[in-house]
UniProtKB/TrEMBL annotation:
PANTHER family per UniProt: TYPE I RESTRICTION ENZYME ECOKI SPECIFICITY SUBUNIT, TYPE-1 RESTRICTION ENZYME ECOKI SPECIFICITY PROTEIN
Organism encoding this protein: Pusillibacter faecalis
GO terms classed as biological process: DNA restriction-modification system
GO MF: DNA binding
This protein's name: Type I restriction modification DNA specificity domain-containing protein
Domain Type I restriction modification DNA specificity per the UniProt entry, residue ranges: 4-153
Top-level taxonomy: Bacteria, Bacillati, Bacillota, Clostridia, Eubacteriales
Amino acid sequence: MEQQWKEYELGELLSYVQPTPYIVESTDYNDKYTTPVLTAGKTFILGYTNERQGIYTALPVIIFDDFTTASRYVNFEFKVKSSAMKILTPNTELVLPKFIYYRMQVIQFDHSTHKRYWIQQYSKIKVAIPPIPVQEQIVSRIEELFSELDNGVKTLQKTKQQLAVYRQAVLKEAFSQISQYVSLGKITDSRLGKMLDKEKNIGIPRKYLRNINVRWFSFDLSDLLEMRIEDTEVDKYSVIKGDLVICEGGEPGRCAVWTAEEPMFYQKALHRVRFTDGSNPMFYMYYLWFASQTGKLNEYFTGMGIKHLTGQSLVKVPVPTVNRINQDKIVLDIESRLSMCDSIEKTVDTALQQAEAMRQSILKQPFEGRL
């Protein structure tokens, strides 16, 4: 490190203000209001308030989560939601607010214990600080590189949005040519799973599917729970290969086809749909996704707050009907096109992860003398 750089404790460079006078009185936020309510975490802006008192105006500052040590640079007037933060301001002409903010982003700190950290620990961390002109140069270079990176990230995010549009277009094309529809109940036998009741359930503990285990087109089996199921209930409450499993609540209509050879049990929050006419269940899985994305499924939901797709409503849902040969062809075409989308999206997601890693690298370089 150059001799011009001098070491200070963070507490020597930053004084703190308690946020209590700036805490919002009501969390009835509205995007039409003008004053943002902030948190130092990932969410950052929790919402907007119309309260006129207790607005923090001495800018710029760094808001610091006293429990997680996350921080945000703020250059606009704001209020806060809770007292679980410190408002940090430079208390010396030796440091620029944005320079010390960037420096804080690369501090490695263990915050696994749930307690406040600023006063006793974090403020005592030592950092090397260069003269103001050097700080200005470093901040300027970081922001120049960040701007270039952000432009690339915007392009990647736009690509993801275009992929979502393309997926809908694929399904719209697949189903728009079909003119004949039938109620789902006409071609299926469906039932809800077993009620989870630890006091009343008897039998052998067996793994089962919950709503959260059913994703669109697939199952997440990483955290299966167990409930007691009697031998006499096995057929009644199990899904077998070829069954379509549909969420009754949560995200009503979300579904996947069970393709494993081994059966699996399921709870009451799920519908087991078994086709009685030899249909390809994948065909109807894709159609339900299309109906969900386009809002066609919504009119069959019940409930004012939390929506549900009850058994009575499910059997009434109109679905396209074509012969099995055409169903198979349509499924093959859909999967071919969606597979291409998935491949592109995987590449985009990898690039976004690399961009975030690059952001950290950009921040570290000036403090290691490499920028």
